[in-house]
Amino acid sequence: MKRIFLIGYMGAGKTTVGRILAEQLGLSFIDLDCHIEGRYCKTVSQLFAEKGEDAFREIERRMLHEVATFEDVLVSTGGGTPCFFDNMEFMNETGQTVYLEVSVEELANRLELCKTTRPVLKGRSGEDLKMFISESLSKREPFYRKAAILFKAEEMMTDQDVLKIAKTLAEML
Fold first, then answer.
1. d(CA 58, CA 50)
2. d(CA 132, CA 34)
């Protein structure tokens, strides 16, 4: 039985790498945000707006505990998942955790392209976006660094880069 949790900031590649890595390892793939959206029939943004962050984080925690009962699974968590409750300790106890580490500059480059789908980034660009990422990453990084595996996932420009990262991680796991 194998259970792997990919953690990291939004735009780090958790879902992109996770899908391929799960396939390479013969595991089921679960994107925790998608799992929540399927269960509640609402987007994460809608849940945040309707219920507030505290209630959303409780939902996220319950769904994390649910997917952690599944066997042979790779879970791509939300960027904030490890930072609330005892989620990071829980993931370390129930499976292997991998932090996909990416620099602020690279995260800004990646997130600049998808600002419209991430409400927290709406209206931010350039230096403002980098500052936002830097501030929020500095708060989250102490949680991320508790992962069993810290993996630099900077080079993710092409499909070949993603395949290479997934292959390297598969060998480590």
1. 14
2. 25
pTM: 0.94
Residue 173 lies in a domain: no
Chain-centre distance for alpha carbon 22: 14
| Burial group, residue 122, by CB count within 10 angstroms (0-12, 13-18, 19+) | exposed
Q: Is the dihedral of CA 32, 34, 37, 43 positive or negative?
A: positive
Task: Report if residue 169 sits inside a domain.
Answer: no
Q: What is the mean pLDDT of each run of 10 residues along the chain (173 residues)?
A: 95 95 97 96 91 94 97 96 98 98 94 71 83 96 98 90 93 92
Q: What is the DSSP letter of 70?
A: S
Chain Cα centroid distance, residue 3 = 15
Q: Is residue 77 part of a domain?
A: yes
Tell how far CA 159 is from the center of its chain: 19
Count the residues in the chain.
173
When divided into structural domains, the chain yields a total of 1
